[in-house]
Structure formats: C-alpha cells, structure tokens
Amino acid sequence: MLKLPSLQPQTLPLAKPHQTLNPIKPTNLPLKSNPLNQFPTLRRLRIRATDDAAYPLDHDEAAAAMKTTFVPPHTPSTTKLKIAVVGFGNFGQFLTRTLVRQGHTVLVQSRSDHSASAAALGAAAFYADPGDLCDSRPDVVLLSTSILSTESVLRSLPLHRLRRDTLFVDVLSVKESPKNLFLEALPPEFDILCTHPMFGPESGKDGWADLPFVYEKVRIARGETCEGFLEIFRSEGCQMVEMSCAEHDRQAAETQFLTHTVGRVLGMLGLRSTPIDTKGYKSLLELVENTAGDSFDLYYGLYMHNDNATLQFERLDAAFGVLRRELELHGKYRKQVLENASGEEGELFR
User: What is the pTM of this model?
Assistant: First the structure.
C-alpha cells in the first residue's frame, strides 16, 4: 500500500539574527557562467536618518516612523493628525470644532487667552507661548490668523523646535502673499500647503457639503500628512478645487472681494426688512448678514494683499460713474422730450 505524506503543517525553525530562513535545498543544477552567482551575498539595509530634527525618536516613535501604509486612490484616509491651530479667532474656532469631531488632536496657540473656549471645543491643550506649542511637535501647523498679522505670527515661531517633517498650512483668503512668505521664511525641510476654504462660520454653519475648498500643493515631500489634512475637507463633502495661488487670487478678486465690497456698501445704508420684501431684496439682506461679521482687517487684507482686488475696486468705481452718467443723460433727454411735446401741444390748440 502506498503511504501518503503527512498533511500536518511543519514548523520551520526560527531564524537566528541576520540569518535568512530558506527551507529550499540547493539543487545540483549548474549555475550560470556569471562568476558572481558562485558567491551569492545578502545586502543589508541600513537606516541612515529619520525625519526628526530637534529630538531623537523613542522606541515606539521609531517603529511608527518605519511603517508605511499604502492608501489606494479615492480611499478615505484614516490618518489622525496632531494639528496646531495658530490663531483662535472666529475662524480658528470654527475649524477646531470639525477637527475635534473627526478625531484629530488639536492644539491651540493664541496671544489672547482662549483657554476656556479651547477646552469647551475639545482641544487637547492651549498654549500662550509659541515655543511651548512647537515643543509639542505637531504634524501640522495651521495658521488661522488675520491676513495682516500672518507674517509677524509666522516669524515668532521657533521653527528649530519643530519636527523636520512638519506640514505648514494657511487658510487665508488671499493666496499669493502667504505662498511667497512661506517659501521665503520656512526651511526647505518643511512641507507647504496653501488652502482657502471658500466658506466661514456663517455660510458653513449647516455643513460643508458642496462648498468649495481651494488648495495648492506648493511643496510636498511627504504625501501622507498632506492627504490626511485634505481628507478633513473631502470627507465633509467639500468641492475640492486644486488651483494655483495666482489663479485663485485672480478669480477671488472677481467673486469674494466684490461680494464683500457690495455687502459693506449695503450695510452702510442700514437696510432693514419690510412687509413687502421681494426675493431680490431678501438676497441683499442675506448678503449683508453674511459679510457683516467679518472684520475690517479682513476686508483691508483682501484689498492690500491682492493686486487683482485693487483693479476690481477701480472697475466697480468706474461702473458706478458710468451708471450715474447714463441716468443723468437719460434725465436730460426725457426733459427735452417732455418740453418738446408740451410745445407741440400748445401749437395744436392755438
């Protein structure tokens, strides 16, 4: 009777350090003539450096730094980030609420004492000193400052105390200005992502679905952190628009700046709701409401840090002039018509 080999799984002996486990026995087949095949060697891989500059990695961090995860295209990222929100005004608090809800660790830094608000929103820590914030070694530094104070805030950060793989992100309403500032002030080891959520606490109060989020990957060497940050907005249903900073400023001057300008002009008129409001008038009141909460510093920043906005303001001023002249000419023409008609009627009854 033929005996079948045992089907029980065989346990291979554990390999000793620096040994290769190879249960396959060499055969007597002749090797190729290449003399290197007679003395096969193993190449050893050595880790020459890590992406941490200021501090040595501990054992757990070193193990995590060596792991890589393949994320297929269009697959939601599960990366949880440690995000430092620098500047904790209305917009910083507005973003923090969603960041915390998504499970990210949020650290807050501000010159004003917003520790109570930060704790109420679920932030992990509040820092008054920017150095203490940098010592916390965030994955992302998110600048949520005013346009006018961005440069002074950025230069106040002790960058040498941050990790070398830190991602810097801004959410300003102008883009060329912060892009140039980042490239000039940040060491080349830091990644740069310029973004503009085209919504705010008022327009985004009911959710971010279908609201545009504009971004440019200015300098990205490590894609996982960048994609993890973009996923924050992608998962909320934002309309993701990848666009150069220069093109953003050109288009934003024709949309955002004009919107703020008209909203401020209407707000100065003191418009109020009436019992006979038309749909168009209600839209104007809504425009005033959406822009009234923004500071004049924001509006001034839109004007001063976007050359295209200056051009749009001049065009708007010229358009008012043309409209005024058309009304005046129409009035003179109407007066002449009425006077001529009145004279002709007098001739008929003489």
Answer: 0.67
Q: Which of 90, 144, 88 lies closest to 119, judged by CA?
A: 88
> Per-residue confidence of the chain (350 residues) as pLDDT tens digits?
545 555 555 554 554 444 444 444 444 544 444 444 444 444 454 444 444 444 444 444 444 444 444 444 444 456 899 999 999 999 999 999 999 999 999 999 999 999 999 999 999 999 999 999 999 999 999 999 999 999 999 999 999 999 999 999 999 999 999 999 999 999 999 999 999 999 989 889 999 999 999 999 999 998 999 999 999 999 999 999 999 999 999 999 988 888 889 999 999 999 999 999 999 999 999 999 888 777 888 788 888 888 888 888 898 899 989 999 999 888 887 887 777 776 665 555 55
Which region, left, alpha or beta, applies to residue 104 given φ > 0 means left and ψ of -120 to 50 means alpha? Answer: beta
